[in-house]
Every structure is written in C-alpha cells, then in structure tokens.
Amino acid sequence: MGKKREQWSSNIGFIFASAGAAIGLGAIWKFPYVTGTNGGGAFLLVFIACTLLVGLPMLIAEFVIGRGSKKEAVSAYQKLAPNSRWGHLGKLGVVGCFFLLSFYCVVGGWVLIYTVLSLTGQIIGPTTDYAQLFGSVISTPWIGILGLFIFLILNVIILSLGIKNGIERANNILMPLLFIFFIILVIRSLTLEGASEGVRFFLQPDFTSLSAEGVLYALGQSFFALAVGFSCLVTYSSYLDKKESIPTAAVSVVVMNLFVSILAGLAIFPAIFALGYEPTEGPGLLFVMLPAVFSEIIFGEIFLALFLLLFLFATLTSSFSLLEIIISAFTEKKVSTRKKITIISGLVVFVGGIPAALSFGVLEHVQIFSLSIFDATDYLVSNIMLPIGCLLISLFISFKMERKLMEAEFLSGNNLSSQLFKIWLFLMRFVVPLVIIIVLIASLGIF
What we know:
This protein is mainly alpha-helical and 447 residues long.
C-alpha cells in the first residue's frame, strides 16, 4: 500500500510555491524587454488590466479543478469528467511541460553559469565584450550541456524530497530572498543620477507609443505570466487543504507576480536610462545589457551577482512546478516511487534538452521553419500549446465541470459572497475565451 498523499502544511507555503511557479523567466526576463519595446507605462497599465481580467480568473480555475478533484493534472480531468476525452487535457499539460522544460532548463543553465561567473568576478571587466561573452557561453557545447545538467540536478534533488520537505521548504526560503534581493537592486537603481527618466518611461503612460500589436503583447504576457495553461497549478492545488481560500490564494499570487514585474521594471529601466542605454534592447537585455549597466556602477559586480542569484531562484521555482506535473502524473497511484520517477523524469528532460542547448553551436545549422531548435520549441509551446491549453481549460470550466462543486471550492475557507462566484464564472465563460482566441489568432499570425 502506498504512502498517504501529501498536502501543503500551510496556505502561505502553497501561495509561495504557486507564486514561485509563476514568477520566472516571464516576470523577470521577458516582462522588462517587452515593456521596453512596447511603450513603457502604457504597456504596464494594459498588462495589469489583462492580468486582473484574464490571468486571475484562469488561475482560480486551475485551483478549483485541482482541489475539487484532489488529483494531479491527468487524473483530475478524468475524475471530474469520467468516460470522456477531457483526460487528454491533463496529458497535454504533461507533454507541454516536457517541451517547455527542454528549453526552459537550457536558459536556467545559462543563468546558473552566469551566476557562477559573476560570483567569481569573471563577467565585469574594463575590456569585456558582453555580447561576445554571452555568445561564447551559449555556443560552447560543453558549457551549455553542463549548465543544463546541473540545473536539472538541483530540480531533482528538491523535488525528490516531496511536497513539504522539498518544494514548500525551498520556496519558503527562495521567495522571500527573491523579494529582498530585488528591493536592494531597485534602491540602487533609483539612486543613480538620471534615473528619473527611466521611472517616467516605466510608470508614466503614453498611449501614443502603444500600438495594437503592443496591446496583444500585453494580453499574451498577462496570459503566460501566471503559469496557467499546462495545468501545473491544478497539480499544486490538489495538495491544498479544504479550509484554505482559493480566491485569497489566487489574488495573493497575482499581487506577488505583479509586484515582481514592477520591481523588475524599477530595477532595470532607471539604470538603463541613467547610463544612456536604450530600453528596446530585446531578449539580450539580461545577459548582455545588465553586465554593461552594472559595470558602470560602484560595487556593480556585487549587484550583478545579487540580480543573477534572484533570477536563478525565480527560474528554479518555476521549473519546480513544470517538472512536478510530470512527476505527479506517474506517482499518483504509487507515491512511494517518487524519488525513482523524479530521477528518471530529470534524465528524460536532460536528454530532450540537449538539442536546444546545442542549437546555438554545433546544431546551429539545423532549422525548423527557419527557426533554430531552441526558438522552434519556444514558439511551439508559447504560441500554440499554451493558448490551446488555456482555451480548453476555460471551456472545461464553462461547460463540463459541475457548477455546485465549483461554487463549493470557490467559497470554501472564506466568507465571500456567492455573487463573486457568479462574476468569476461569467468571466470564464465569456471574457476569458474571447481574449484567449484573440491572443491565439494573433500568435499564429492570422491577422
């Protein structure tokens, strides 16, 4: 007989873990660069509005499905909709997380390598060409594969310990540290001479600089920033006690995610403007621009190391949730085999990630629809699989899951009015699917 299924020891532990799942490459790496290329303050306002109207309802939906079923993603849909094809929605999440991890852990490896280089004083220097350094790191085969391997080892060690001793304990340490490090960096950035121009760019809306495409980017960013779509948080919430409030937990996660996104902007834009750089640097902002920025700041090496550490923490906590959905899919009925399944899952993801790790070097010539292996995998996950997953979840909530169960889960552990449940259900049935379809169509380049 297997061991008893674990639960989070507290609502705070669940909130930190869920926030950790959401706060990663999207909030810290992607948000600043898409904000910088799409109008600054105007983009920020639209992003916040979309997060509240789209991201929050979707987050609550995954929590309701997870706790309502008390099962991991695959079994959750099978239990709530027996003798139907909805179980494939959970399988889509497992497959999607594998593809996502195959390139996400590659970036995690880059962050890990940069963190080590920074801590040993090997990044900032008077003659360092930061673009060349980054190119060298990602194109050298053994460096990319070693970073991927070590990053996955860290995941396997934490996840093999289980929910309370592994994920919850790690997040309870890493999430507060993330906020502390970010606040230190924000304070340093805001005290630079000329930083006010960057603050105005980030916080003062100028809608003339926001295009229709920028609005769609804001929708997409809010949509993906909360880790919804692959049922990762269905799995996390399946471990949540009935006495805890789902809406309260969801609002807490959204607030933390928005807070970190805003902190990222306040840490980066003031420094970039103060030192005469452009905010439209794009995806290379973190690995190329930040070392250049911090090299012109007193104690810059220390501040760069702090930033990379917090980014590593955020990347790890996000990867925990992605790997957990794969692990839990195979350990639902045999909890005692968790460590073995965790190791096997880590090895499978490592092998699957090797092509992406080599796609900037020895496999650079391999193109899929004119994209590198890394970029093609990213496109498949971000522009196709995630939107489809989100749309299907919204349809499942709207037309398949029992209304009484949804309302019971929504209101359990709190004194909220049933009117709020009706508002949430209205958003899920009408607003969220429409927005998802718009984002999906735009992502596919149909218009």
